[in-house]
Amino acid sequence: MQRITCVHQGWELYGSDRAFCESVRVIRRACPDAFIEVVLPQEGPIVGELEGIASRIVYEPLWILRRRELPRLATIGMLRLPVAVLRAARRIRSSDLTYVNTTVVADYQIAARLCPKRTVLHVHEIPEGATRTVLNALIRWSGARIIFNSNATARSYALRPGQPWRVVYNGIAGPEQPNPPRYDGSRPLRLLMLGRISRIKGQEVLVEAVRRLPEAVRRRVELRIVGSAFEDEARERALAEQIADGGFEGRVMLSPFVRDPSPLYRWADVVVVPSQRPESLGRVAIEAMSYGIPPVVSRIGGLTETVEDGRSGWVVEPGDADSLSATLARIVAEPEAWRSYPAAAHARYESVFSEAAAAEGIGAVLREAGLACVTESPSAGARA
Questions:
Q1: For site-directed labelling of 230, which of 14, 194, 269, 370 has its Cα 20 to 30 A away?
Q2: CA-CA distance, 167 to 135, in Å (whole number)?
Q3: Quick one: DSSP state of residue 352?
Q4: Which among 96, 149, 92 is positioned nearest to 282, based on CA atoms?
Q5: Which residues, listed in sequence order, are joined to residue 273 by a DSSP beta bridge?
């Protein structure tokens, strides 16, 4: 029996966590008889999604590069790094393949160099500044086989000569049936924004864009912003105050993180992803398209690979409340102009971003890594 170790830095159920669960499901389908051990830093909501897929789930300390913890990692954290690397190396050596989700799991990347050709690193981040330098150095050092989740992500890194890589778009589980097209202008347009409240996601830009709508148009919009800031309560309070001061008369609602967003997608007509910094792909936009919901996204990072502007959604300039406001006004006023968008959005999801599409690419990577258990056929169009 072949043994596969899957390592993830989180325990919640945000985008990267759900992406990890979906990757493990793809690996399980590709290698149905393998022993798959999942390594997490602690127990959390993600465990319920992995039970029944993983053969075993273990919890152990991981050396994770998080911005808020860098001062501690650079001081007392360095004392436990050698122990973490040795622990990671033992797991890699005892596995036929180790799959590491995201670049911030530093101990496994360092250990991968000690156990050549046994590690696949799935890169979901587009870092900037000093962070890019550190993460790029780790990836090059690891020598691991790389999966990038978009072409935009791949362009952000410089790999070692000969280091194997390919782009595989995230395979996202969708509903059995998409929403029927239903907005005809006779009721308020239902806008939805999902995601962690942070400086990256752009919730405040969206609120300001709605505030700038002409009053008659603003009365024809309902907006739900769903998410939590977790460790940045000041930012969450500031967003709540911005909404309270906006004069929205109850048409803009802020709600905390929900584990299952499907009822929200069933409610929404349009999903907005107004990111201000590069998204590596844009999971929320893809989830929206799986429901037949056209998204409005920022022209930044992998979001431009997700949505076909003027066909399956709309693309606006990042951080530009005026541009976003003008786009929303057109969406409200001209429902006939985008009547074909929901079907086009769902068709794009099915052909490019479904779990079946991702299974082709990930199955090819596993086969290239030498796993004899792989049953999926390689993707013909992927980059090796």
A1: 269
A2: 18
A3: I
A4: 149
A5: 297
CA angle 259-354-31, nearest 5°?
Answer: 90
Q: How many CB atoms lie within 10 A of CB 204?
A: 20
- Any idea of the CA torsion for 23, 29, 32, 35, to the nearest 10 degrees? 0
DSSP state at residue 13: -
Q: Which residue has the tokens 């004392």?
A: 79
Q: What tokens appear for 4 in the block? A: 């596969």
Distance, in Å, from the CA atom of 215 to the CA atom of 346, rounded to the nearest integer, reads 32
Nearest to 192 by CA among 285, 307, 75: 285
* Cα–Cα distance for residue pair 61/283, rounded to 1 Å: 27
Structure tokens at 111: 């250990």
Domains of the chain: 3-171+354-368 (3.40.50.2000), 189-351 (3.40.50.2000)
pLDDT band of 71, cuts 50, 70, 90:
low
Among 138, 147, 125, smallest CA distance to 63 is for 138
Positive/negative CA dihedral, 65, 70, 72, 75: positive
The answer, yes or no, to whether residue 13 has pLDDT greater than 90, is no
In degrees to the nearest 10, what's the CA dihedral of 254, 336, 311, 306? 10
User: Nearest-5° angle of CA 347, CA 349, CA 354?
Assistant: 125
Continuous segment of H or E residues that includes residue 39: strand 35-40
Identity of residue 3: R
List, for residues 141-174, the tens digit of each pLDDT value: 999 999 999 999 999 999 989 999 999 999 888 9
Cα end-to-end distance, the chain, whole Å: 27
Q: Tell me how far the alpha carbon of residue 317 is from its chain's centroid.
A: 20
Residue 192: phi and psi, rounded to 5, are -130, 135
Q: Report DSSP state, residue 179.
A: P
With CA atoms as reference, report the closest residue to 53 among 13, 25, 11: 25
CA-wise closest residue to 296 among 273, 278, 279, 312:
273
